[in-house]
Amino acid sequence: MELKGIHHVSAITAIAKQNYHFYTDILGLRLVKKSVNQDDPSMYHLFYADEIGRPGTDLTFFEIDRAGHTYQGNNSISLTALRVPSDEALRYWENRFSENNVLYQPITEQLGRKVLFFQDPEDQRLMLISDQNNQGVQAGIPWDRSPVPTQYGITGLGPVKLTVPDKTQTERVLTEVMNFRYKGSYEPYIAGQPNVDVYETGQGGTGTEVHIEERTDLSREKPGRGSVHHVAFRVADEVELLAWRDIVRSARMPNSGIVDRYYFKSLYFREPNGILYELATDGPGFATDESVEKLGEALALPPFLEDQRASIEARLEPLNTKRD
């Protein structure tokens, strides 16, 4: 029983239009699904990914109107990485960020790999990581209609970083419950703090990693726009998901039970430092209710919300995502 890697990361935005512009026009990702939060259909849920929305490539956003500023701190998913093919791609992105007034830091190195830190307009903490020397789980394929040349395009999700006040219990859940394995560590960016520990699962590599940063100098994060809501990990199918449910129950960790999200099935639980995890199946995928050619162009609703379409659309600010 091993998880296959990262499935998706879900974050918060306050302005869907601005979010759509940045992640498609600047980062060059494809909007593969324009839907709503199934637990609160009054808000958009936007899915950005590779050309067809392969598992492991989805960065998603809930639009929470008037979401406040994030006060960064502990007990948080404090960084989301995005994979690019090469070191040369990072140099391309430095130039692109400069041209588009994106806040970023110079290329640096992390555990022997080149990385580039940057932020979106709502201070979402992001990082590009080069796959030049990566071995492990396969990356996605950039959309050939992206404004970013495919040889430099984002190919999926890289590591997520967890910031916690005491990493012992988080590491215990990762290794003893979720079967992650220790990969190594690197020096922190804040002097005086412990090294950041790196764990991986499945085939390993940048698409499977969780980085754990222990910070003794921070208070608990107050989330808002620009914060991450949860991270999901890949499970092959519903049979495996049911087995993972039993493992989580055996560890006496409260959980959601199996939840049908239509595009995949999920299980949610929190680890002791309050980080929300989701386990999600690889299928059936985003082409279930739309053709691959038209992904993300119309408002997609799961069948159990379809009879509410008129009232849902009336509450949403129009968001034009049709492409020529």
From TrEMBL:
Please name the PROSITE patterns in this protein's record.
VOC
Q: Where is the VOC domain?
A: 5-131, 156-282
Tree of life domain = Bacteria
Q: Name one Pfam family in it.
A: Glyoxalase
PANTHER family noted in UniProt: RING-CLEAVING DIOXYGENASE MHQA-RELATED, RING-CLEAVING DIOXYGENASE MHQE-RELATED
Give the protein name, as stated in the record: Glyoxalase family protein
UniProt source species: Paraliobacillus ryukyuensis
